[in-house]
Structures
1.
Amino acid sequence: MSHIALPSPDRTILERRNDLLKRLKKLVPGAILITDEEGRRTFETDALTAYRCLPLAVVLPESTEQVSAILHFCHQNKIKVVPRGAGTSLAGGALPLEDAIVLCLSRMSKVLDIDLVNRVARVEAGITNSGITDAVANEGFFYAPDPSSQIACTIGGNVATNSGGAHCLKYGVTTNNVLGVRIVLMNGEVLDIGGPELDPPGYDFLALIVGSEGQLGVVTEVTVRLFKAPEGARPMLIGFGTNESAGACVAAIIAAGIVPVALEFMDRPAIHVSEQFAAAGYPLDVEAILIVEVQGSDDEIDTLLEKIGQIAEDFNPLTIRMSQSEEESAKIWKGRKAAFGAIGQISDYYCIDGVIPLSKLPKALQDIGWICRRYRFDVANIFHAGDGNLHPLILYDANDPLQLERVELCGAEILKLCVELGGCLTGEHGVGIEKRELMHAQFSDADLTQQMRIKAMFDPDWLLNPGKVFPLEERGAQ
Amino acid sequence: MTGPMRVGFHAPDAVEELAHLVAEAADTRTPIEVMGRGTKREVGRPVKYGTVLSTENLNAVSLYEPSELVLVAQAGAPLAQIEQLLADNEQELPFEPVDLGPALGFGPGQATIGGVIATNISGSRRIHSGSARDHVLGLEAVNGRGETIRSGGRVMKNVTGYDLARGISGSWGTLAVMTEIALKVLPAQREMRTIICFGLDDQTAVEALCLALGTPFEVSGTVHMHAGLAEQFSEAEIAGSGKSVTAMRVENFPASARYRSNRLKHMLQAYAPALELDTGPSRIFWNEVRALRMFQRRMDHPLWRISTQATIAPKLIAAVSRKIEVRALYDWSGGLVWLETPPISDAGTVEIRRTLAEFGGHATLIRADASVRGAIDVFQPLDPQLMALSTALKQVFDPVGILNPGRMYPEI
C-alpha cells in the first residue's frame, strides 16, 4: 500500500448514500449520475495510477445551472466534491475520496464563441486543450499552452493546474492566456470573473483561481486568448559530451538574446532508450542532446538556426543537425516525442516535475543521479531546459509495493533538492496529493496559512477537492 | 519600537521593521497609506490617512541572472534604475510599463517597481507579451496582520500552491505591502520599425490594427490617436500632420524586422501607410506613447483608462463624444483607451459609465482633482457579488482594514 494518506471519510455521508443519491438524481434529471461500482471504477484514479479510490458517485452535468444545483445540494448536505476534467493529473489532483462525489465536466465541451478579430474564444470547461486549437486552426490561429497531454486534457483541468507545455517559454502558461472564467462556488453561486478584456476590474481573482487545483470553485466556462500561428518552425539537434556543456549552451543561447520557442534536453539514458524505440537517428556517443526550435519565415529560421549553431560551437558539440525540411523536423522531434512511451516500454516510471534555476542545472543533474543511485533506481532525464523545469523519470517496478514506497521517497528527495537550489516543487503538474506533505519545504507557516485562508474564504467547510495541496495536519489545525 | 504608531512618514530600510510597523498599526487600528515614491498618490479615491508607509528605502536589486531571464528587486527599487540595468545587459521588461509620472505632474522615470506591479500598469507591448502581472514570478509581501508572506519564487515555471503573487498584483496596496518582486525579463529587441497611417477614422484604424495583430509578424505595438494628440511628439512629420495617427510596431533582429515591416505594409495597403520609422525614431515614438506625452499638456483635463474589446472601442468613444468633447489614445488595438475629458464637475463619469454599461468594459479615472475623485467612483463599480468577494478577500489579507483603506472602493 502506498504511503500517502487520504482524509478519513465521513461515516454519516456513507450511511446516507442511497438517500442522498436518490435526491440528487431527482434534483438534476438532465445530468448523468453513475452509482454502480463498475461505472465508478472508471473514475477511481487519474494519471497518478498508484492511488485509487471508489467515489460515492460520479455526476456528469451538461450546463452551468446543473453544476450550480449539484454544488448547492452538496453544500447543504456537507458532501465533498472532487472536480474532474479528463483525469490526466499526474499529481493525484482528481483522485476521488470515498465520501465524495466526482463532478466530471467532460460533457460540457462546446465552443461557445470565437472572435478572431479580437483574438479570443469562449469555451466550455470540458473541451480538450487541442480542441480549442482545432476550432480555430483553419483560420491559422491557435491556443498557446500545450501540455503534452493536450489531446486528452481539458481546459478546465488546465485552469486548475495552471498547465504549461513545451512552448511556454515564449507564450507563457495558462494564467497568461486565460482572460476570464465562469465559476460556480461551493454554495452554488455562479460568478463571472474577468471577461474578454485584457485587464480585469478590481482584484485579480482570476490569478487566484488559475492554479488552485479545483479547490476554490468549479470552472464551467473559460475565455482564452488566441494567437496567429507563425509562418513556420524548424528545430535543430545538438549533441554534447557532457551535461554541463549542454546546460551552459542553453544559458548562452538565452544570453545572446534568442528565446527559442522550444528548448528540450535529453540525457544519455533517455537518448538510448528512445533511439532504440523510435530510430530517430540520435547520436549515441553523446551525454546529452538539446533540441532547439525556432519560428518565423524560412529566412528568419535559417538566420536563427545558424546563429544558435555558432553559439553551440563554443561548447564542443559532437553533433549538430539543422532541419532543412519538414521530414527532417519530424525526425528530430520523433525521438523526443516517443521518449516517455519508449521508457514506459522498458519499465514503469515515476515522473518528477521540479524546477531549478538554470544555472544550477549541472549540479542538479549530478545530485539527482546520486540520489537515484542511493535508492538503487535508474533515472532518465527529459525536460524543458529553457525554463529549468526538470522531468527526471525514475525507473521502478510498480507491482512491488516496497519499490513504490521507495520511489516516492526518492522523488521527494529530488524535489527538496530543487527547492534547496532555489527552485520549486512543481512546475506544471500541480501539488495534488503527491506533493502535499512537502509544502513545508517551500513555504513557511505564514505562507501556507495565508493560502488556506483563501481556501476557507471560498469554501469554509473545505468540501471542494479536500485532502489536496495542503499538508493534512495543517487543515486539521485550521 | 513600542507604543502606538507615531503619525508621520515611515520608510524602513529592513523588511522586519516594515512588518513590525504594520503589525503595530494593526494593533492600534491605524490606517496607513502604502506607497513607493508616491508618483501615483493622486490616483484613486482621496483618503486622508495621517500615516505614510513608503518602500522607497527598500530599493536594492537582490538578484539578476540575465541568462535565466530573471530579476529580483525590492519593491522600492526605482523603475528607471531597473530598466537601465536591464538595458546594460540588452534586456528589458517585456510589458513596457506606462510611466504615469509626467501625466500626473512628476518627472519621468520616478516610479518604483512595486508601484508598477501594485497597479498592474502595462504598456503597448502588453498586446503581444502579456501584462505586468503576467511577468511576476514571485513576491514577498507583508499582509495587514504584519506577517511576511512569500508566494511563487524566482523560476520561470511554478504551480506550487495558490498564486498569491499575481493575486496581490494590481491591488493598489490594499491587500499587502509588497517588499520584493521576482520578474521575468526578456532580451531587448535589437531592431524595431513603425508603420504609420495618417487620417484614419477610429473605426477604420481599429480595423487596421486588428488586421495587423492577426498576422504572424508578432506586431508588438498598435496605437491610434486622435488628431492633435501627437502635436508634442518629436517626429516632425507626425507632430505636424494635423491628422489622426495610427501606428504599428514590429521588432526582431534587423533582417527580420525589415521583412516583417515590408510584409505588413503590403497587407495594409488599403489603409495607405505613409511613413515608416526605423529603430532610432521608433524608440523615441514608443517612449513618448509610454510616457503619455499627448496628455502632458492639458493637465487640468481629467484622464480615464478604459478597458474594453478592440472592436467595441470606436463605438463606445463615438457614443461618449456625442455628449462630451473627448480626445482618445487607443492602445492594444483598441482594447485599452486613454480618454481625455473636459474639466467638468464629474469628469464625464456619468456619460462614460452609462456608455460602458451598454457596450461592455470598465473605466478607471487616472487623473482628476481630489474634489472630483471624492465625488465619483474612481474605479469601476463592481456588481454586488464581486464586491462581496472583494470585501472577503480584503478581510483575508487585512482583517483590520489598515492598508490603503478606501483607496479603491469605500468597502475595502
2.
Amino acid sequence: MIGGAPGTGGAAAPAPRTEMAGAAGGEFLLEATKVRKQFGGLVAVHDVDFTIPRGGIVSLIGPNGAGKTTFFNMITGLYRPTSGTIVFDGQDITGRKPHEVVHAGIGRTFQNIRLFGNMTAIENVLVGLHHTLKGTWWQAIIQPPSIRREEDRALERARELLGIMGLGERQDDLARNLPYGDQRRLEIARALATNCRLLLLDEPTAGMNPEETRQLTQFVRSLRDRLGLTILLIEHDMKVVMGISERVTVLDHGEKIAEGTPDEVRADVRVIEAYLGRGAAGRG
Amino acid sequence: MAVVTSPVGARRGFPNPFRDVAASRRQRTILVVLLVLAIGYPFFYQAIPDVLPRPSVNNLIVMVYYAILALGLNIVVGFAGLLDLGYVAFYVFGAYSTAFLASPIFGLHVSWWLVIVVAVAVAATAGILLGAPTLRLRGDYLAIVTLGFGEIVPQLVRNLDKVNINILGVQVIGPDFNLTGGPLGINPIDAPTLPIPGPWGRELVFSNGNPAGSLYLAMGLLVLSFFVCRRLRDSRLGRAWMAIREDETAAASMGINTVTTKLLAFALGASFSGLVGAFVGAYQTAVFPESFNFSVSISILIMVILGGMGSLRGVIVGAFVMTYVSQTLLPFLGGFIDGPVQSFGKQTGVGFLENFTLVAYNFLIFGVILALLMIFRPEGLLPAAARKAELHGEGVAAEATFGTDTSVADAATEFEEQIGGIAEAEGPGASPPGAPGAPGAPGAPAGEETAGGAS
C-alpha cells in the first residue's frame, strides 16, 4: 500500500529501476498474443501480437480507426477480447474486469479526458488511490484510528502526487474548472495514484500547444527514468512518438503492419503508405 | 485556499462525534439552542396560539422521519447518481418485517430494539436483491426498473393475504395463509418500550400515545442517520460513489469495483428506510399497504431534489419543507380558504369549487414549486457545493471548492462552516415557509439543525 509506506514502493521515490529496460532484456511486462476484437462483422483488432518490455516506452500508432483505442480498452478490461490472451507480469489478465486490471498494476488515461468533473483535483487523485486503501463501509461509519491514519496518509500521498504533476496549488479546484493542460496532468496524477507499474497514455498531448507537448514529453520520459514505470503511448503527434519511444508498433485497419525502433518504422514502406505517407502527400 | 487545506492533523486525536455534526462554535451554539427548542416543543407547543400554522408534535414526527427517508434516498440518488424511483419498496420491507416480528399476526413479540436491527438488515438485503438486477442499467433504464419494483412490492403486500402454494398437488403453504394482512394491513404492532419507571407508568412507551417520546426517538434516529451519512460521504466509499456518479467507466478504470460499490449504495440507502419502517410501524402501531404508494417514492425524491441532491443538510431541509407544507401549512390555510371557496362554488354553481379542499391540491402545488425551482434554482434549496458549481458554471467555482473539500479534511469543514455558517444558519430559517410563523420556526429548523449543523 503506497499510503502506508511513503517512499518505499511509492512512485515518488526515485526508483533504482532506471536501467531495467536494458537489464531485463527479453523479459516483457506485457505480452499480448493473437488478440482479436470483433464487433459483429467488423474486425477492429485482427490477431495482434504485442509486447512491452519492462521499463520501456512503447508507442502504438496508426491512422484514425486503426484499432488503437480498442486495443487499449482490451488491455484495461473495458472490452473483452474475442480471442487471444493478454499476460501482464506473468498473470493472465484476458477478460478481467477493469478494476481487476488496475489491481494487477495497469493505470490509464483517456483520449477524451474523463476526470470526475464535480470532484476536486485532490478527490480525483484520492479515487485513484481507492484500491490501495482498505476502509470498508462500517469502518467509514465507526472510523477506528487505523482508518483515520489511512485517510491521512492517502491525503498526504495525493498531495505528493499533485505536487509531482505541478498541481499542488489547484488541489481544491473542481476538476472541471481546471485549464485543459492541467486536466491532462491531473488524469496522469490520478492514474499514478493507482500505484501502477504499466501506465497507458491515450493521446496525452492531444489538444496541447507545442510547448505543453514538449514539457509533457519530457515528463513522460522522467516518469520512466525516475519512477521506473513502463509506458505505453497512443499518440498522433509523430514528434512525440519518435522523440521518446524505444519501440513503435503500427496498426492499420486492426492489423499490425510494422514494429521496431522509431527509425525502422519511419523507413517502413507500409507505414509510409498507411500513415506517414498521407502526411507526406499532404505536405507535397 | 492554503488555509483550508493545510492541517491534515486536525483529523487526528480522539474522534469527537459532536464535532462531526457541528464544527464551529457558532454552529454548536445554534445546534444546542435548536435541540433544546425541539426537545421542549411538546411542552410549549400548546402555548402557541393556534392562529399560527404550528405543526403538531405528530406533524413534527412525520417531518423527522421523512428526513431520514430522504437521507437514505440521497445516498442512492445524490451520492451514487443512481435514479431510484422505487425507494418505497425498501420502506415496505422495513415496515413489514417490524410487523411480522412484533404483532399478533404470527404471535411474535420481539423487543423493538432488536426488531429495528432486523428491519434495517432486511431492508438492506432487499436493497441488494433489488439492486442486483439493475447493475448493468444506467440512467433512464435504471429509473424504469426501480419504478417497477416500487410498484411490485406494495402490490405484493396488498395481495399476500391468501397465500396458497401447491407443489405436486400437496399444499405446502395454505389454505389461504395470511402473510401480510392484505389491504387491512397488520394491526396492532407493539410499541418500543424502555423499562424506565416514571410518571408515565412502569415503563416508557414510544408510540402515538406518547408523542413527545416518539419525537425524541425519531430525532435520535435522524441524528444517527445524519451522522452515518456524513461519515459515509467523507470516506473512501463516498468518494467511490461520487466517482461512479461522475463517470462510471473512468471509476472502474481507477480500480473501483462498480458492482459492489453500487450494491453498497442500494443496501446502505435502503437500510435507512428499514430504520424508518421500524419506527413508523411501531409509532402508528400498524402498517397498511396504502401507506406505501408510488407517491411516497416520488415525494421522497422531490424532497431530495428540492433540498439539493447530494447535500445532507439540503435533503433534510427539503423533507422538512415538503412535509411541513403538506401536513401543516396547507391544512392550516385550507381552514381559511376552503369554506369561502366552497360557498363561492355553491353560489356560482361551479362544480369543482363546491368540493374544494386545499389539501387535495397538494401535489399540484408541489408540481408548481418544483417547476419553479428547476427554473430558478435547479441546484435545490441548500445544494452541495459541487452541484451548485455544475449548474451555475465557473462563477461559483471558488465557493464550490470550500464545500467539496470537506471530505478532504475536517479543518476544511471548520473553515467552511465559519464562513458558510452565517449564511446557512439563516438560510434554512429564511427559505422554508416554516420560518414566518414564529411557532413553526422552533420546530422546523430545530430538527434540521440538529442534524444540519455541518454541511
